[in-house]
Description:
Elements: H1 3-20, H2 26-38, H3 40-55, H4 70-84, H5 89-123
Helix pairs in contact: 1-3, 2-3
Amino acid sequence: MNIAKDKRLEQAARWLVRSQDKDFTPEDKKRMTAWLDEAPANREAFEEMRKAWKHIGVLTPVLAPISIHPYKAKKFADVKAVLSRFKESKNRAAIAMAAMAVMVLLCLPVFKTYFFEQAVQFMSIKPQPGSRKL
Length: 134
């Protein structure tokens, strides 16, 4: 891939995400249409992104020309519900704290083992005959 194509794909992805937003205005749609009409490569990039997103079930039926299979829609509804929680900043902090707590709990056995081994080594050090005690 070249840089120009990467930039087009990135811009296409941005337009695709923006077009799915509930705040997508008619003015935004005009700007998106102007960008699509600006160059055939823009439209190709947009279609490529749309196909990829449709394949993974991200697009709403408004932009997806073929209806989404009900099983896929149900399967991804839960994922969409979970991901929608990331939109609110107060939830982001709670999720970050929960993730950090999980990481600490997962790492706790490793730290316990390390400190236990250190304590055992410290306790098993025997003074040499003739050495002075501190």
